[in-house]
Amino acid sequence: MRLATWNVNSVRARSEQIVSWMTRHAIDVLAVQETKCADDQFPVMSFLAEGYDVAMAGQGGYNGVAIISRVGLDEVHIGFDGQPAPAPGRPLEARAISATCGGIRVWSLYVPNGRALDDPHYRYKLDWLEALAGVTGLELGHDPAAQIVLAGDWNVAPTDADVWDPEYFAGRTHTSPAEREAFAEFTRAGFIDSAGPFAPGPDVYTFWDYTAGRFGRNQGMRIDFALCSPALDDRVFDAFIDRQARAQQGASDHAPLVLDIGG
Fold first, then answer.
1. 133 neighbors 179 (Cβ within 8 angstroms)
2. Is residue 90's pLDDT more than 90?
3. How buried is residue 147: exposed, middle or buried, by Cβ count under 10 Å (0-12/13-18/19+)?
4. What pLDDT shows up at residue 60?
5. Torsions phi, psi of 53, nearest 5?
6. Domain count, the chain
7. What local confidence, expressed as pLDDT, does residue 263 receive?
8. Range of 164's domain?
9. In angstroms, what CA-CA distances link 17 with 24, 64, 88, 138, 210?
10. pLDDT, position 202
């Protein structure tokens, strides 16, 4: 199975590009983030025409997650138990969806950005990650042989090696000690950064801001991950970040991350 995750930064604006990329790379399952459309606006037919089924959780012009699969799409669940809202009295945001695809429990996750260290959204981000870690850690604890992947845009760079300039990010979100600690909770629970060993050096980044010519200068961040349960990690035999997808005209500011999974 070939499984990928991609923050597409508007599925309607890039549906043809996404479908073409999926068919060209023989993608079986794609976890999608930042779809930026309501469910009834999702370009489902573009994917159905190529043999894919789609499950989505949309939210108007922002957020939004989906799973696109040609190997089954069962037991779809939107959100997760204990998922916090961005503020008291506000509705839950469309940031998590999970489904079973070809025997693997696939999560598509769009972790809150955090905005700034003194912004209430930063506390929301930490609470969101804590709640997700509790749910997924419990799931893995109940069944160590479970086939699970937590895929998506985590909006956290777990180490200094995951950003182009650690000094630039000092005092900013994505690299703060609290965010890195929240990310580490997943690895302590047993989840593994399965792509890490296959994407070293200058090809490690998955995101380059549109501003200041960041992509051309390779001033990026590694913030997109596919964290696998140990049993699933044992089946991962290759992985890559498709930098060329980011280089295309009109591309998302993220590159897709791909895992190859054996039987």
1. no
2. yes
3. buried
4. 87
5. -100, 155
6. 1
7. 86
8. 2-261
9. 10, 18, 38, 37, 18
10. 60
